[in-house]
Request: fold
Amino acid sequence: MKKTSFERIWDRYPRIVNYLLGIFVFLFSFFIYVQTLAPTVTAEDSGELITASYFLGIPHPPGYPTWCLLSHPFVYIPIGNIAWRVNLSSAFFASCSVLFIFLFLYKLTKSRIVSISSALLFAFSMEFWEQSVITEVYTLNTLFIILCLYILCLWTEDKNPKYLIHLAIIYGLSLGNHPTMFVIGPILAVFILLNNRINSQNIKLYTQCIIISLFAWCIVCSYLYIRSRANPPIDWGNPETLSNLFAVITRKQYSFMLTQYPRTLSRFLKQCYIFFWMGVNQFGSPLLFFLALISFLFILPKYKKWSVLLFVISFSTSLLAILVQNFNFDIEWQEVMSVFGIPAYLCMAIVLGILLGEVLKWLDIQSKKYYFPYILVLLLPLIPLYKNYERNDYSSFWFAHEFSENILNSMSKDAIFIPYTDHLSFPLLYLQKIESIREDITLARICGYLSPELFEGMDREQWKRYAPFPKGRYESELIGWLIDNTDKPIYSEQEVKVICETKGEWVPAGIIYRFQRENEVVPCSDVYWQKYHWKYIKEENINKPTASLIWLQIQWAKARDCFINGDKETAIKLINNGIKHYGKDDVILNNAGVLCAKYKEYNYAKKFFEEAIKINSENKVLEKNFRKLIHKQKSAG
Reply:
């Protein structure tokens, strides 16, 4: 195969050159990731994962045992705080992924130029870059995917059985990291069967590989059982019994998602449309995205097996994510879904690299003087690097830390706090368990359900109704029991309907609420606002989705207090300010309408509801709230 002009210069020492270039793509991507690395806990799953990594605990199902074990060594790095160190593990796994993309592409194309370019193009793609600078499991998952592909590529060269054994080990370990690998595994198996003879010797080899994979998976899953028995600070699902272990591994807690929302063809097609358009700007330009998309077709004649394999992985992981999640169309849901496109973006970057390699080979055959295309290909990663830098620069992101710390410090001593959102509950867990901030506060919800430890004083027969892990439909009763059976201050992120004998009501306590028992004197909401100190949470610093969500929560809490104090005009301005930064969707506009209706601002509520209906007329909750509003208006008028 004819070499490109640039590559002939490097032919004298090919192995050394490849090692050096591999080190370059690793170090360059790692340098950018470290420059943009979050300095502390971010939001969503970050806080629980950092805590699980530090204490070798069990985060939300399926427990991510492989990730916990591989990220844990980073907590011993003697620089930075614990959150920064675990964030660094994401950057490391990401850069390792970039390195193996380079190696994999070079194996296929023998072009160092396109291997460097495509590896870095993916490195700075929007979603993958974001996951590389915060604590999450997706960069490790990407590393496992590209490792499997790279080993498979080595196997196709000489069909050496040792590569399938290596693949089996890696794949077995990957099953303990993310469920995506359960989708990819059968696809890899079919690829192997189609590219190898069926005989007794190979059947024996395949059987060995299956046993090795299952054994590796069982070994990492045993971590869940072993560590749960040690009762770490985060012990989600308490998998120290076989039934609980099975429930965690199979994500039984989230089985409701399969039937949570209706399933129709029109809804599914809209989900596919939204998911597709999430990817358009991943590489900094829609042109690169669509060029990568058609690359599957263009490389098909020469790289048939790899084109088909990569397309099937892309299509299957995306389709299964849509079907399993059955997501809604609001902004928060789209943020959740965005990470599930990473395997597809990985495959697209690879096929784009293969196509560019073929183009450069063709140009090299035509003339020795066309240097510009090679330079252009090398410069392609600068597009996503420039376009996605600001969005993924988390180096000054303290929103979640400051927000959670202020709420902790505002509460009365020995209080019980009931959080409801991930962007608050998980950073609180991190601040308490690792930074030892306000350890006197009891977090009532650590693992997605009210902590069973809070109800140890409940009659055991009564507890059987809720055991072992209380479901959401029982929270009114359980929180009511807490109110009746403790004299501790009880705070909640939201107003909650409670069933209890104690007379009282929820009253504003700054951003959150406090339950005020009858004849109990509690500080007014202004006292809590005076306790807050905002150094980083400022309007001019809002440039991340989580930052806009936190800002929205603060603005709407202020708006609530303005309504109570009779300052309607300021309240509406605050509501609109929050929406301006967060964005408009049917869920957020519905919530704005509910807030206005609660304080009898029916005209404003109606405007919000009508705008929400225009966005999504199929929202049943919105429809119900709008009917209630019309009824209230008629009753009032």
Summary: The chain has three domains: 5-392, 399-531, 541-636. The two ends are 83 Å apart (CA to CA). The mean pLDDT is 93. The longest strand covers residues 504-509.
